[in-house]
Amino acid sequence: MKILSTLLGITLLAGTAIAQDLSNEACEQLITQAEEKNDPVLYDDCGFGNEARAWAQWAPFVTAHGLRRATFELCRRYPGSAYGALYCKKAEDMNFGPALVRRGKERLRADNVKEALHYFDLAVKSGDLSEEETIKVMEILGMIHLDKTSSEYAPDSGIALLTKAANGRSAVANNTLAYLSFSGEHRIQKDYRKTLFFLWKSILLGCPAAEENLGAYHLAKQGKISEEDARYYMSLQAYTCEPFDKSITDNIPVGCDCKDILKQEKFFRSQPYFYLGQQQDGTVILKNHAGETFSYSKGEILPDDSIIQEVSPSLVTLMKNGKKSFANLYHQGRCVDHCLEPIRNPNKRTPVRIRPYHLTFTEQECANIEYYAPRLLDTALPYVGKEECHKPEMDETTQLLLNSK
Fold this sequence. Notes:
Blueprint: H1 2-8, H2 18-21, H3 24-37, H4 40-44, H5 51-65, H6 68-77, H7 82-93, H8 97-109, H9 113-126, H10 131-145, H11 155-167, H12 171-183, H13 192-204, H14 208-221, H15 227-235, H16 246-249, H17 258-263, H18 265-269, E1 274-280, E2 283-288, E3 293-297, E4 307-311, E5 315-320, E6 323-328, H19 334-344, H20 363-376, H21 386-389, H22 396-404
Antiparallel strand pairs: 1-2, 2-3, 4-5, 5-6
Helix pairs in contact: 5-6, 6-7, 7-8, 8-9, 9-10, 10-11, 11-12, 12-13, 13-14, 13-20, 14-15
């Protein structure tokens, strides 16, 4: 309300519905001013959110006055309509930065990297992009040039672009540079001091993947996993801020007793094996290694001629040719697969549990934040842990009042 009243010189009363009070003349003034203001709310207040009104009333006005941002606003809001596609093309032809970024992303999704680079380059040169939009484009360009399968592979250019984005508070770029300085990929010299620098900066900028990568980094430094394994786990989320999928993070299935499984190793190594899917009132649902389900009761015979001898909540005892075997309550056989993996594939990397370094703002974590934040960021701006760890100091008067109680 305050912004609108300032722009229009209107004194607005509390509770007045702004959109209803704005005349067409006032909206024309607002939409024209919005070219510089870049405030989508201004368009909302004049009915751009109503598709019929947007095309009937504002599209002709926008076209007649050559308003680039408003043209793209119509494109952005209604990309699926025939008019929307037309206005997207209009905004591109007007060399409007955000429209060119949109077009670049479309070409990238279509695997036309060369055209995508062309549109991204035009967008940056247009001068229309905000600082945040420019950083996002630098992230994309940097990733394109680091793609070894791309005809545009140019690691030096990619690193330079990501470095610029990282300096501009890009959490993703900092996370990527952390991985590269740890792994030495793309001919970058390994530098663990830089790894820690980039990881912490990414974390403070709000990147969950960097928190988990810091967890892998510490595991390697503590000797709990090899540096090669740490590099592998970090590579899974090196070019993003999305954290590990739970199935990757939690490689050890819940409830696994490898010692018990290894006792029965010979049985489990001879497939097909059965495992217990569910047990209720004496009836058991067994699954085999192929995922097929069988429902049986005590005394019944399985397809492999085994007899169900005993049933318990977590174990079914099978008897075949006078020999016992067992179907255990393991989740989809994952425990079996996990515990026997080193035996079946002795040269394959053993899964480990990566414990994410998710910040919970413990005393030690706050001490880390207080150490790294001033060295890595402009602390006048928002960052992770700022409010949780940095409590405002009480002024002298407040302190005296508290002490007097």
